[in-house]
Each structure stands twice: as C-alpha cells, then as structure tokens.
Design goal:
alpha/beta; 10 strands; single chain; 8-stranded parallel beta sheet; TIM Barrel
Length: 277
C-alpha cells in the first residue's frame, strides 16, 4: 500500500498530503466510494456540508475497521451557515452525520465577502478548536485580502487555505503569501476537472517520459510544490493510480514546463471568491 507523506500544519497537526475528495459523489454512492478509497490506501477524506454526503463518509468510516485516529477528516461550513453561533451549530450537525466527536479540519467553505460575516464566522471556528470539536481550522477560497483581514482582526492564522489550483491556474502569488504566513496550500480541482488539461501536449510528453499518466504527472507537480491534493474518482483503478505518485520525481525542467502552462485568471474554472455566494 502506498505510504502518503504528511505535512505539519501551523498548529502541529499532521495532514496526509494526498487525500480523497467526495465533491459531486452522489450521497447514495458515497459510502461505497469511500470504502474503495480506503481499500486503495487513502486515509484523508475531504467532504463538506454543501456536498450532502457526510453521512456516507461516516458510514464508510464506521464500516472500515479503521480506528478514528487513522483517518484525517475534513468538512466545510455551508454558505448559509455563516456567523459565530451558526458555524458551531452546523459543525455539531456534521459531527452527527460523520459519526464522530471531532473532525481533523473544519473550513469556512467560501468567504462571501459581500455578507461581511467571515470574521465573525472565523471566531466561531476558533471556539470549536478550543473546545476540541476540531483539531485544526482553516478556510477555503480565500484571497490574500480576505486572509489579511483575518490576520488583522483575529489571533488565529488558518492552518490551510483550500483553493482552485492546477497548472493552468497556479496561483503563484497566493501560494507565496501562504508560505510567508505559515498557511498550508490545499488544491481543489488539482487536475483541472477533466476540461482538457490532461490532453495538453506538454503533459502528454512528460507522461511518456516518466511512464506515467498525465494525471499522475500533474499530481506529482502538486506534491513537489508542497500542495495538499485530493483528486476525486469513483473508479477504483483510477483511485489507485492517483495515489501512486510517490515513487518518481519530476526534474526541475519538468516542473518549469508544467508551471509555464499557467494562464493566470483566464485559467480559472470555478467561481470567483470575491463574488460567489
């Protein structure tokens, strides 16, 4: 079974660098899908209140035979759960659905800056951390501006910021900010949502060079950048392929070729955090 390295977060918690995401996994298929992920060696599961499949994740964990401390669980606050009290209430619901007394990471899913509540929401997450209902707290889809405001108005630096990140939208400036402030970078849509990235000739050439798939090359690029990634697939063979990226290395020139695919904001596939929600 593949041994996935861990990254030490700014509060000392260790998180597996590669995990399994359940975005868009139908609730009725989630338990079976996560069981397959466990069988493939994944021990880091990333879900969210918005996905509607926390119960399936909890069922898979309960039936897996794994102890709770063997699995790193992340969930994220739904967009209509902003506010100090609401964030805490929503976490309690998530814990019930997941069948656990704590998660390992609780994230604000989107900042919703027009509502101007994410700082108050963050204070709710700080309370959940202090009470042991989560081992670490972070954010998702926050920009440098949003992160800067949290730093200015509260005393807790997010452990992670989970953002859209792939070779066509490499977010170099944001990653540099993270590195300078002790925030780990998590990448969603790490292989570009199946929207043509993996057909790029550069990636095809590197896949041939290393005897790997284009997806494995992209995931290895993330790993060597220090990103935390959780590709999603409902196919067991693809799950095994995606986790099998720790026994080869991309050369410096390979990394530069992939990074040169960056299109800046034009490469964004998902919503803009400044306006979404």
């Amino acid at each position: 079974m593949t041994q996935v390295p861990t990254i030490r977060l700014n509060n000392g918690v260790h998180i597996p660098q590669l995990g399994f995401g359940v975005f868009k996994v139908p609730p009725r298929e989630t338990a079976e899908t996560v069981r397959s992920a466990f069988a493939a060696g994944y021990r880091h599961i990333d879900t969210a209140q918005m996905y509607g499949n926390e119960e399936g994740v909890g069922r898979a964990l309960a039936e897996s035979g794994l102890s709770r401390d063997e699995v790193f669980l992340t969930t994220k606050l739904d967009n209509d759960g902003h506010g100090f009290d609401a964030a805490l209430r929503r976490l309690e619901v998530s814990l019930q659905k997941l069948g656990t007394d704590h998660v390992d990471l609780y994230l604000i899913h989107w900042p919703r800056p027009r509502d101007d509540r994410y700082v108050d929401t963050w204070r709710g997450l700080e309370k959940a951390l202090a009470e042991g209902r989560t081992r670490s707290i972070g954010v998702s889809n926050f920009t440098v501006e949003h992160l800067g405001r949290l730093a200015q108005e509260t005393g807790t630096v997010p452990a992670v910021n989970q953002v859209e990140l792939h070779p066509r939208f490499a977010q170099a400036g944001l990653r540099a900010y993270h590195a300078g402030h002790g925030i780990a970078t998590e990448a969603w849509s790490p292989i570009g949502q199946g929207k043509g990235l993996l057909d790029d000739p550069v990636l095809a050439g590197l896949a041939r060079k290393h005897g790997r798939s284009a997806a494995q090359v992209v995931l290895r690029w993330h790993v060597q950048l220090g990103n935390i990634v959780f590709p999603k697939s409902m196919h067991p063979q693809r799950m095994r392929e995606n986790i099998d990226v720790f026994d080869f290395e991309l050369a410096g020139d390979d990394m530069q070729e992939i990074s040169a695919l960056d299109r800046g904001a034009a490469g964004r596939l998902g919503p803009n955090p400044d306006t979404f929600g």
